[in-house]
Specification:
It is built from one helix and no strands. The chain starts with a helix and ends with a helix. It is mostly helical.
Amino acid sequence: MADSDDVMARLGRLENAFIQVADVLVLQGDRFDGVNERFDGVNRRLDALEVELRTTREALVDRLDRLIAVTTRERTLGIGRLADLERRLAVVEERLGI
């Protein structure tokens, strides 16, 4: 009978140990779920930031393209005006004999 009681006591301790292991595993699973939710939130924020950065980059590139076009056009017009003024000055100088 003593052996039977000893075996039953051991089985009781094993059962308690299994219950504790199961509880720990459940807690760890809950923690992993929490970590996964946080990672999902971070991924969503990064995706939104990526879209925002892409949009900002495209807007900047567009503005720079327009600025370059306007600057080029203005410089070209300025050079053309300067050449026209030089030509007129040369005509005036020629007429005046300078």
